[in-house]
Design brief:
Blueprint: H1 8-20, E1 23-25, E2 28-29, H2 48-51, H3 56-66, H4 73-76
Antiparallel strand pairs: 1-2
Helix pairs in contact: 1-3
GO cellular component, one term: extracellular region
GO molecular function: guanylate cyclase activator activity
Family: Belongs to the guanylin family.
Length: about 80
């Protein structure tokens, strides 16, 4: 994301954290903007520096989108183009 680099495995772990914390109560959905993976003790260490940035929510959103299940691992890499 920009000049920051993260391992694909860590990005997948981030997505699991975000997806797993979206629903706490079946009657209440937590909007993406109100959940911060920075508060999760399972957040991979390489994201700790992102938590100090004001644009952290947008960075985490973009990384989460990059790890969507319907993308091949090659296409999940921002440097890759032309898979589709």
């Amino acid at each position: 994301d920009g000049d920051m680099k993260f391992s694909l495995e860590s990005v997948k772990k981030l997505k699991e954290l975000i997806d797993g914390n979206r629903h706490i109560n079946p009657r209440m959905m937590i909007p993406m903007a109100s959940y911060s993976p920075c508060q999760d003790k399972h957040l991979p260490e390489e994201f700790w520096s992102v938590c100090k940035r004001e644009d952290a929510p947008m960075i985490f959103r973009r990384l989460s989108l990059a790890a969507e299940d319907d993308l091949c691992e090659i296409c999940a890499n921002a440097a890759c183009a032309g898979c589709f």
